[in-house]
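Predict fold of Alpha-L-glutamate ligase-related protein ATP-grasp domain-containing protein; 362 aa.
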Amino acid sequence: MSVDLEYLAKRSVQRVANFKFHRDHGILARQVLGRLEKLHGKMSPSLRRQADDYAQEVFGDPVYAPWLRVYAAVSGTFREGWIPDNYYGAVVVPRLKHGYGEMSNLKTVTRLIFLDDAFPDLGYFANGLFYTKEHTPISDHEVRATLFGESNRIAFKLDRSGQGKGVFVIHYDSFDPQLIRLMGNGVFQAFIRQHEIFDIFARGPVATLRLTTVVEPGGRVSLRACFLRLGRAGETHIQTGSEVCIPVNPSTGELGPRGYLSDWTDVEEHPDTKMKFQHVTHPAFAACVAKALELHRKVPFVCCVGWDMTVDVDENVKVLEWNAQHNDIRFGEATQGPCFADLGWERLAWEVQPKVHRSGLS
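Predicted 3D structure, encoded as tokens:
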């Protein structure tokens, strides 16, 4: 009997990667739970047991229990239908996206895919060349005039940037084509003057609405979760380590009464300006939802997408980026979930997949 050494080596590498993936998620989830228990007291043994039993019985592995415990601690109860964040990343993403979600990591192709002016792209840098937003190559001497035609500052986002990393605010006087070459491929975007309602919370970083949409089994696209991300005083853009997240009613656009800091401390007001979240409604919310659904219909082969949007001073919807790989579901699940209970994602763990060898399928 011949042994496929290459296949066995790949399987070994994959096992190590899976172990590290779930270990890291477990560490993070336990840290979050520890913080929540310091704030609100120890989780009851019965609630913890429900999370642990559900992980084993529904998903087939106790490694999915830590995030279920976090969801339960935030909600104060246990709800069937929750999807653990590491289950989403380890099972749902590879099984229902098959690499298509990686397209969202390439900032230079977004307008090619969607053909929509809601993306505030001004131009691109890719593989040694600068381009206009129509993807026409331009020389180094033309770049500054092309990018700074309407403002003296712009944003530059590197490919595969996320969580506030790989994002830079560049001013007209400090723009250097050679520095961009050292930084890498990415997109230049207009620096948006946000709607005045967001200024009551934070004037510097542009507030971002995260809308999570899914493709249902029958092909219909629907909204499943929604929250507002606010930055902090002195920052140029929102960063994961310091942001404030507030659940938003997906039907009305009204902010929830409580938001959460990056360490999951719950607050009723922005920590810098002391403005309360309750009774504030997101501007042009229906237009934001409509735009997210419209755009997702153009990439229906990606089962779940997180859209980062804002509304400018004239109430125009602006789509800052889309996240189609392992987009964040944990905040929505903990504060608004279960968000995906009717999609059958939990059954994916039990379906047998064919093994693929170099010679074909077996």
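Residues 103 and 169 are 24 Å apart (CA to CA).
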